[in-house]
UniProtKB/TrEMBL annotation:
Listed name of the protein: GNAT family N-acetyltransferase
GO molecular function, one term: acyltransferase activity
Organism: Streptomyces nogalater
Main EC class the enzyme belongs to: transferase
Annotated TM spans: none
Keyword terms of this UniProt record: Acyltransferase, Transferase
Length: 213
């Protein structure tokens, strides 16, 4: 049986699910992670809920069938059904690993209570983080074990190219395809990741347990 990780690994190499208007329903890869991934004309729903319920609810959604999986009606029904919560629909990007050393000086953060580290650890496993002058970079295992990146740039250090340096450094530290989730309204963030060579591949809504798993 194809797993969510199989699909993600293929997408990272440029091989996408068929653009056939279909929906693939898969079990959750972990108790923590459930959600919806929308690619071009194909959706992957990963949840332990009944696949028949997922398909029936998608058919009942109003509007364009190709957009049903990200429609407010379907997502609200899925959240109600699972008893989970969500933050925002994100654009999903992936970057290949890069050779070489980061162009900015990085110091690994050992303090697990650091706010950026604590935030990342609620969403990912095996988190490591590095501080730069004016910013923080974190890597960790997220959905289906994929390697994910998040960055934070201090207000006073913005508009100087530090964000691009950090997300480029992440590709140099990764050693494997690296995934990023960016809110579509964060146009500046999207430009930074794309300028650093990350490719947009889809959209995603993660359903978070209301209590930590």
């Amino acid at each position: 049986m194809e797993t969510l990780r199989d699909i993600l690994d293929a997408v990272a190499t440029g091989v996408f699910p068929p653009a056939d208007g279909g929906t693939t329903v898969l079990p959750q890869p972990s108790p923590r992670d459930a959600g919806v991934l929308a690619f071009t004309a194909h959706t992957v729903v990963f949840t332990d809920e009944d696949p028949a319920w997922v398909r029936e609810t998608l058919r009942a959604a109003d509007g364009d069938p190709l957009a049903a999986s990200m429609s407010p009606r379907f997502l609200t029904a899925l959240l109600d059904r699972t008893g989970r919560t969500a933050e925002t629909i994100d654009a999903v990007l992936v970057g290949e690993p890069l050779p070489g050393e980061p162009a900015c000086a990085l110091r690994e953060i050992e303090d697990l209570g650091h706010p950026r580290v604590a935030y990342a650890r609620r969403r990912r496993d095996g988190v490591r983080a590095w501080a730069a002058d004016g910013g923080v970079l974190a890597l960790g295992r997220g959905v289906a074990g994929r390697l994910e990146v998040s960055v934070e740039v201090d207000e006073g250090a913005r508009h100087r190219g530090l964000g691009r340096l950090l997300v480029t450094a992440a590709r140099q530290l990764a050693g494997e395809p690296l995934w990023a989730q960016v809110a579509p309204g964060n146009a500046r963030g999207l430009r930074v990741f794309q300028a650093a060579g990350y490719r947009p591949v889809g959209a995603e809504l993660l359903l978070r347990p209301k209590t930590p798993v």
